[in-house]
Amino acid sequence: MLSAANATLPGCPRKCGNVTIPYPFGIGRRCSLGYKYIVVCDTEKNFSVPRISGRHILDLSKTQITVTDGRVASSCNFAEEGSGEDETWSNVDLTGQPYSVSSASNIFVVTGCHHYGLIEAQTTTGREVASCVALCTREEDLHNKMCSGIGCCEAPIPKGLKFWNISLEDIYYNTSVSSGNCSYAYILEKSTFNFQGLQGQDSGYLKSVPVVLDWFIPNERCQDAQKNSTTYACQQNTSCIDLGRALNVIGYRCKCLHGYQGNPYLSPGCIGLGLGLGSILLLLSGFWLFIIARRRRKRMQRAKFFKQNGGLLLQQKMWSKDGMIEKTRIFTADELEKATDGFNENRVLGQGGQGKVYKGMLSDGNVVAIKKSNIGNSNGLSQFINEVVILSEINHRNIVSLLGCCLETEVPLLVYEFIPNGVLSKYIHGPSEDFPITWEMRLQIAIDVAGALTYLHSASSKPVFHRDVKTSNILLDAKYRAKLSDFGTSRSVGVDQTHLTTRIQGTFGYLDPEYFRSNQFTDKSDVYGFGVVLVELLTGKRAVIPTESHNGKSLASYFLSAMENSNLYDILDAQVAKEGREEAILAVSNLAKRCLNIDGKQRPTMREAALELEVISQLHHAPVSAQKNQPEVTAETLTEINYSLSDSLLPPDTSYMEENWSFSSNWSTGSRIQHETHDGA
């Protein structure tokens, strides 16, 4: 039967390794009386190690804690006589902690030759000191195993030590005996001390020693503590013991009254021995019933959340495909809580309209991004299920992969691959001088996003409209390649169909004007959003430009006006103007202009946009002399190239380009850009 004195709060671990952790101590905040009594259970090489305030616990009893990291002061000679010494001092501060060094269970020891050891301490009664001297008068003294002043000395320590300093001083005793390599001074547990002589006492010989600490409820005497029933630690059938005289500290302990037993700190308190074995068994039975009921309640709650979060509907949708989509893993709530350190706010990567995203590490070491969805209503639930179903069918290198989901929590969770460099918007709207986004990187990002949207529109099992294409939904991986994310508002539709909505969804600045008028979202609506992204890459400006009226101005209209008035170069990002070739910049600008056409039918498809960007990339990398000798690539040429490919889009991991396309310096209609080009442009 478990010792009642070693009892813990219901549901809390009783042990860490082979050390029992009785209340008021506990593993975790919920299991302890307060943060000063929290024990951390570390796992080191398959062993569990309990620690309190960073100190390794060897034993924890009703009145004392034994820890291993008692500090050691040392003084070492490394060479012949006349060389310098390496000295260390030991400083320990337990101020504010609910324990002090036990004067009854520890001693102060100095080992070595010709050294004076000193403890300078501060207690509740003022400054205290303790000291002793270790001498060696003959060579035989080095082999002495008695701690009586020859090679070793010991002294009692003051009561109530909470702050102290240990120092060693060479007294240069006049003797022919070598002082040896090192001398040490330390406080340690009296029962473990066994002096074996000075042989081998060199540098590194002693780093830490076991020390016994007296623990208590600090900062109040019984008389004062009993006035506040909320904070008073002693429970029913207990007595309060002041420790001022016994330990020289301000604090108290609780003790069961005579004839009672149990843990005096744990509600409801101590129980009478006369209650007998039956009462104890009844108490234990009640405890186990409580645990069983809590587990059952937890299972029922998770089942409720699973149903509430659309788990049944999600299963139905996924089964309605060609069998269950096996790659989508169902995570447990415990797994994801552990991965995010209890959804610690320090793990937040970002927050948007669809939810908050945390960085987490799974038990297998994989780093993931975990999105806590904003549900709130049936529409939010529909978006969540929609995102899971769509992403579970998508496999493309430029689209963020969905690893799984969790429906056991009050708010459903989605688990994605972790993309380390975050959102594109922070790089182009808040550029860093240390790491600027180059023109070549911008062009590659545009190609990546165009490829992802082309796949969604043309090559996935069923066409998908993203519906929220913007720079904050584009992530950059370790190589700064783009990945499209956030499919909460996406919709899959039949070929040649549009999606009719009852309310406008999306982000201002990226919304298709036709969508505003007709409430019909088409693939060309995604093209419009992509056009805004192209303009952001070209100009470095936000989709909505702040104005004095605070209403904001659309970047799309600002860009189209600049194109119309031949002022394009005035609004370009400095990095783009410096590095980009004039022909390539104008080509991308004209593509963006066509993507932003007010008439959706006049916009290119994403497939056409992707092909044009590949051609522009070839232009950017081609030598100037080669460009001059190439025939002009027109819209008709692009169409021929487009149809020369297979009717279906190339697989996601294959380049869109299968031949070396050439490009004329006279790319498109519109005014030429008048500016000085850099070398090689």
Automatic annotation (TrEMBL):
<dbReference type="InterPro" id="IPR000719">
    <property type="entry name" value="Prot_kinase_dom"/>
</dbReference>
<dbReference type="GO" id="GO:0005886">
    <property type="term" value="C:plasma membrane"/>
</dbReference>
<keyword id="KW-0472">Membrane</keyword>
<feature type="domain" description="Protein kinase">
    <location>
        <begin position="343"/>
        <end position="616"/>
    </location>
</feature>
<dbReference type="GO" id="GO:0030247">
    <property type="term" value="F:polysaccharide binding"/>
</dbReference>
<dbReference type="GO" id="GO:0007166">
    <property type="term" value="P:cell surface receptor signaling pathway"/>
</dbReference>
<keyword id="KW-0808">Transferase</keyword>
<keyword id="KW-0067">ATP-binding</keyword>
<keyword id="KW-0723">Serine/threonine-protein kinase</keyword>
<dbReference type="InterPro" id="IPR008271">
    <property type="entry name" value="Ser/Thr_kinase_AS"/>
</dbReference>
<dbReference type="Pfam" id="PF07714">
    <property type="entry name" value="PK_Tyr_Ser-Thr"/>
</dbReference>
<keyword id="KW-0325">Glycoprotein</keyword>
<dbReference type="GO" id="GO:0004674">
    <property type="term" value="F:protein serine/threonine kinase activity"/>
</dbReference>
<dbReference type="InterPro" id="IPR045274">
    <property type="entry name" value="WAK-like"/>
</dbReference>
<keyword id="KW-0812">Transmembrane</keyword>
<keyword id="KW-1015">Disulfide bond</keyword>
<dbReference type="InterPro" id="IPR001245">
    <property type="entry name" value="Ser-Thr/Tyr_kinase_cat_dom"/>
</dbReference>
<keyword id="KW-1133">Transmembrane helix</keyword>
<protein>
    <recommendedName>
        <fullName>Protein kinase domain-containing protein</fullName>
    </recommendedName>
</protein>
<dbReference type="Pfam" id="PF13947">
    <property type="entry name" value="GUB_WAK_bind"/>
</dbReference>
<dbReference type="InterPro" id="IPR025287">
    <property type="entry name" value="WAK_GUB"/>
</dbReference>
<keyword id="KW-0418">Kinase</keyword>
<feature type="transmembrane region" description="Helical">
    <location>
        <begin position="271"/>
        <end position="292"/>
    </location>
</feature>
<keyword id="KW-0547">Nucleotide-binding</keyword>
<keyword id="KW-0732">Signal</keyword>
<dbReference type="GO" id="GO:0005524">
    <property type="term" value="F:ATP binding"/>
</dbReference>
<dbReference type="InterPro" id="IPR011009">
    <property type="entry name" value="Kinase-like_dom_sf"/>
</dbReference>
